Amino acid sequence: MKKQYLVVFILILFLLSSCSNKTGLKSTEEQNKNQADNKKSKITISHEVSEDMTKHTMFQKFKELVEKNSNGKFDVEIFPNAQLGGDDEAVASTQQGNITISAPSAALLGNFSPALQVFDLPFIFKDSKTAHQTLDGDVGSNLLKKLEDKGLVGLGFSENGWRQLTNSKKSITSPDQLNGLKIRTMNSPIHITAWKQLGANVTPMSFTEVFTSLSQGTIDGQENPLQIIYSMKLYEVNKYVTLTGHIYDPEPIIINKKFFDSLSPQNQKIIQDAAKEVITLERTLNQNSESDIRKKLGEKGAVVADLSPEQRQVWVDKVKPIYKQYANTIGSNDIKAVLKAAGNSTLLDYMNQ
Length: 353
Known about the structure:
This protein is an alpha/beta fold and about 350 residues long. It has 14 helices and nine strands. It has helices at about 1-40, 55-70, 85-95, 130-135, 140-145, 190-200, 210-215, 225-230, 255-260, 265-300, 310-325, 325-330, 330-340, 345-350, and strands at about 40-45, 75-80, 100, 150-165, 180-185, 200-205, 220-225, 240-255, 305. Helix 6 (about 190-200) links the parallel strand 5 (about 180-185) and strand 6.
């Protein structure tokens, strides 16, 4: 009987010891995570535009919010003007963790998530309000989630704005007038295909080479939002501006997933909330500056041409085939989901034919 009591007593001691060790281990793990989370962290942000652009203003506000709301846990450093490389390099560096955050054009994320190439397709959105509602809703959220298995977390969609055409030869309102013109595009297969479909001779290149190439006549034109056209003084070498508005160019704010996952939910929320606030700020700044920039371009001697609804429809009809051509690459369901959210019945009906 005494032996039985002894065995029971030993078993109880063993169980208590085991539970204590597990609790202690768990406590140690939590303590180590808390210590790591409280340790000061550096956030490096890279972008390729100048300090007078709204993108830089957006990241300055992000720095202010994150440093303030984290009580100094985060030290945010911003590198503008492609100091750490262009957006192509920034995407790879963010994935690798060499930099923490970047905001490339969605077109450049196509290699990581083909579904994000949907925004390379022309003439999806009728206006900025529709674009913002689509991107901030379930459709945009689901597209960003597709980046996570590639080592990136999408914090939301900032914007580059509406892409417009410029050239050095003539005022253009019809795709037929593009014949023979050498137009620079981003290194995006869909952008390249679209401009070829419209009749241009396409030359993809990094944005950092554009001004020099325009100056030397290597290319005749390019396409970018008005803010970039004005800020980077492209009007000096491209007098003619056509407000095609062919693409609303979202720029997802991406953060290295390993870094983001290392943070506590509280500090993750600080970063997410800051991103949401500065995205709204940038959009507001862009909207307020659009008409002012157009006026300034005129004062600098640029010739700005609008498209009537009838003229715009000619451009839309010209590029329709691209939607079906890239349906398998992007994902037909993803294209249709975006078109439906955008209320684009014309192109949605075309996709369903």
